[in-house]
Amino acid sequence: MKAAVLVQPGQIELRDVPCPAPGPRDVLVRVTAVGLCGTDLHIFAGHVNYNRDRRGRAIPLRDEAQILGHEIAGVVEEAGDAVDDLGAGDRVVVDQGRNCVSAARSPACEYCASGDSHQCEFYREHGITGLPGGFAEYLTIPAVNAVRTDADLDAVTAALTEPLGCVVHSADVLLRTPARYALEGGRGTGGKVRHAVICGAGPAGLLWVQYLRNVLGYDGLLLVSEPAAVKRALAQRFGADTIDPGASDPAEVVHERTHGRGAELLIEATGSGRAFAAIPGLVRKQATVVLYGHGHAGVDLSVLSPLQFLEPTLLTPVGASGGFEGDGRPSTYVRALRLIERGQVDVATLITHRYPSLDAVPRAFAGEHSAADYVKGVLTCASRCS
């Protein structure tokens, strides 16, 4: 089969690789759409490498090339002999994470047993930690990692189940963590969140806006700081007020809009070191700060001091973690997919760039994500196995 293979930082080649055969508990999925995530871009650029050996050392790409892509939708081509709830032709979205339930491991590790599947003792991820990802014609996964789509969703839209699942998990962490200020349904000791700030209106920030408004029912002030006009327009469309940090100081705007109070909740969705350093000027003492973005390069640890003095509740949720349905499917993915199917969260509007084949993958990574009109890119692939 064909696959787009990352052979060294900044270089992707289209190659023939073995077409995987499913085991008894597996399904062979023909990939139909894959979202392009910021994590893919960081790995491509050589900023990070999550493919590690048993001692935690990064395995160089020259030793193990990688197939990226973890926001995956597809169609079941073949099911293993022990699979009785999926068959050829079923359209699915993929949980790229391998955990105890995926492996039918008994007893499950303490993290899978508590519903924290992303922290599984044996966790690995397709497209991130060295397992082959979705930038290929086919992918073989445990059947319990495939969630059937029940509505007539476009594959490109269905592929965004994974990023929404990450927001679902993060919101769950936010609601169950005791803090001074809480959203409706949360555990607060000093009152409700009335002023919230989101740093960044990329796909993550825009999903957060919708989740707060449409799912959690938050009706307080919601400010989004974002330099790109097209993203600010989407944030406004989804129910937020916006700040252009190139035209106004976000701290001054937040101070004015909150009458000097500051935000009780801040979601950092940029991964920017500069944005992290600005957080103390945006929040109230003992606010809750969700560190959703990753990276934060360009600053040193001294930026923590002004934030620590405010005694915030710092949350660092990762991935689309969660428990499991009765059939072993990942609950977070099921919930995210149903939100998309019901139209409660609009992911289709975020997709600004579509790439029609694996041949276009190198172009997708070549810099278009930096364009002013770019929000989210998705690859489509309808090829058959070579």
Description:
The structure is a single chain. By secondary structure, this protein is an alpha/beta fold. It folds into two domains: 2-160 and 347-380, Medium-chain alcohol dehydrogenases, catalytic domain (Quinone Oxidoreductase, Chain A, domain 1), CATH 3.90.180.10; 166-315, Rossmann fold (3-Layer(aba) Sandwich). The protein is built from eleven helices and 17 strands. Strands 3, 4, 5, 8, 9, 16 and 17 form a seven-stranded mixed sheet that branches. A six-stranded parallel sheet has the order 12-11-10-13-14-15, sandwiched between helices. Strand 1 and strand 2 (11-16) form a beta hairpin. The radius of gyration is 21 Å and the shape is globular. The model has no long low-confidence stretch (mean pLDDT 95).
Beta-strand content estimate = 15-25%
Q: How many domains would you count in the coordinates?
A: 2
CATH-scheme architecture of the largest domain: Alpha-Beta Complex
Count of helical stretches: 11
Number of strands: 17
The percent range for helix content is: 10-25%
- Low-pLDDT segments, ≥5 res: none
Give the N-terminus to C-terminus distance in angstroms. 5 Å
By helix and strand content, what is the structural category?
alpha/beta
Please write the CATH class name of the largest domain.
Alpha Beta
Say which CATH homologous superfamily of the largest domain is assigned: Medium-chain alcohol dehydrogenases, catalytic domain
Mean pLDDT: 95
CATH structural fold name of the largest domain = Quinone Oxidoreductase, Chain A, domain 1
Major sheet description: 7 strands, mixed
Gross morphology is: globular
Elements, N to C (H/E)? EEEHEEEHEEEHHEHEHEHEHEHEHEHE
- The Cα radius of gyration reads 21 Å
